[in-house]
């Protein structure tokens, strides 16, 4: 996480770059798995090799191979492999950095865009009280899709109630965002603690 007085960046994932064409390779690997699984399902011969393995039946291994291959084929054909790396909040909006593979025969491409507050459908602060951690998240709903179908994004602010980090973000977010009760209380307590009463002597 990087921060300054007027912006704060949350890293969601380490950027990675896959050489070649990842969706094509997924399609090829999936096809190989499906064909191998069908071969095992159609095979009626069992030898000592299968008997020595944990998966003692070719039928089980064949089903697993077919299911896994079908998953790879469907993912390669439908998903654009969207991966969001970081989100930078500022007074004007939030900047999102991501990468995607737009079609089957393309390489992974990086992208970056500034979404102003008016470009969002909603911006919600989520205070998740799940023992033993208390997770703080921001849920963003965009007016336009980031990838093929992704319009919602959850960003973890803190795995606990980190006052300094949350208070900085609160000063950046627009006023319509409802802050969690604990943060409002903490800000009020800090404000009261910093307030000092000064007695000014009165002279006749």
What this model shows, in words?
It is a single chain. This protein has 204 residues and is α+β, with helices and mostly antiparallel strands. Helices cover 34% and strands 29% of the residues. The protein has helices spanning 22-42, 48-51, 58-78, 163-172, 181-194, and strands spanning 2-3, 7-11, 83-90, 93-100, 109-116, 120-130, 133-142, 152-158. A 5-stranded antiparallel β-sheet has the order 1-2-3-4-5, with helices on one face. Helix 1 runs antiparallel to helix 3 (58-78). Residues 196-204 have low confidence and may be disordered.
Short description:
This protein is α+β, with helices and mostly antiparallel strands and 204 residues long.
Defining traits:
204 residues; alpha+beta; 5-stranded antiparallel β-sheet; 3-stranded antiparallel β-sheet; 5 helices; elongated; disordered C terminus
């Amino acid at each position: 996480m990087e921060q300054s007085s007027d912006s704060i960046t949350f890293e969601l994932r380490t950027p990675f770059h896959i050489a070649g064409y990842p969706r094509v390779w997924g399609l090829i690997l999936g096809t190989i798995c499906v064909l191998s699984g069908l071969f095992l399902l159609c095979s009626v011969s069992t030898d000592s090799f299968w008997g020595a393995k944990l998966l003692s039946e070719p039928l089980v291994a064949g089903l697993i191979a077919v299911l896994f291959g079908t998953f790879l084929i469907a993912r390669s054909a439908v998903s654009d492999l969207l991966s969001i790396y970081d989100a930078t909040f500022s007074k004007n909006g939030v900047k999102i950095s991501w990468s995607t593979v737009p079609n089957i025969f393309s390489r992974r491409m990086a992208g970056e865009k500034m979404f102003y507050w008016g470009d969002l459908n909603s911006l919600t602060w989520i205070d998740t009280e799940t023992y033993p951690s208390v997770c703080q998240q921001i849920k963003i709903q965009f007016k336009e899709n980031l990838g093929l179908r992704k319009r919602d994004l959850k960003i973890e602010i803190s795995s606990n109630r980190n006052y300094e980090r949350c208070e900085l973000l609160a000063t950046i977010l627009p006023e319509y965002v409802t802050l969690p009760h604990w943060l409002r209380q903490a800000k009020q307590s800090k404000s009261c603690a910093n307030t000092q009463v000064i007695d000014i002597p009165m002279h006749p």
